[in-house]
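The material for today's practical consists of a large collection of protein records. There is nothing in a record beyond a sequence line and a structure line. As an example, a complete record with its sequence and its structure tokens follows:
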Amino acid sequence: MTIQLRQICLVARELQPVIEDLTGVLGINTCYVDPGVGKFGLENTLMPIGRNFLEVVAPIEENTAGGRYLNRRNGDGGYMVITQADTLENQQAVRQRALDSGVRVAHEAERDGWHLCQLHPGDMIAAFLEIEYDKFEDFSGNWMPVGGTGWEDKVKQDVTVDYLGVELQSGDPVSLAELWGRVAGLPVERDGAELAMRLNNVTLRFVEAEDGRGPGLGGLDLAVRDRDKILRAAHERDCYVSDDRVDICGTRFYLHDV
């Protein structure tokens, strides 16, 4: 079974300032606005990170799931880990393992060979886990959350290249890792103090929550080609933390040179 990270979703109280920080600091472009999120009381913008994507959503109505998540985690932050399975059978197997583990399906849909299943963040503890399958079976091409194709000319990799990892935090990272591994059907390995699960293109790291915000998607590991440009822009936008980290939208972005 192969599972690819295709998209990370962050949630913000205000959309535009966060998009300006992400594009300005990380040197990436916007590529798509999905009108379909309006039915959830949200607005959004997506940006390619290599051949994968970074999305930000923000509430435009009262009493939305996104708004409740903002309140629970005391501000902007990570929201969804969105993945693509290599076959429909494997996508459905993840769904079934989730149900067998007592994880609720928060939302699912099927349209013309595109199957989407979102697993409830309250049960997955740190974030939504979304598992998708589409009939094109292309990990670097067609992706329905950005309208399929038409985004390719927005890919910009001279500053930020791609995702390397996702940092998920909780008060009990061992139990968190065991849950995500069981649902995904993938092994969890320990390297010293770090627990990790390897997807096709990234590593999910499970760590102790030490920022006072409780369980959540706390950080992202990025492969970068122009660290100096990122750091200069981060200083200008008050996103600088260290030469190895910038913080945007309540999320830690860890920089790794390629």
Summary: Helices lie at 15-26, 65-72, 88-100, 121-124, 173-184, 227-236.
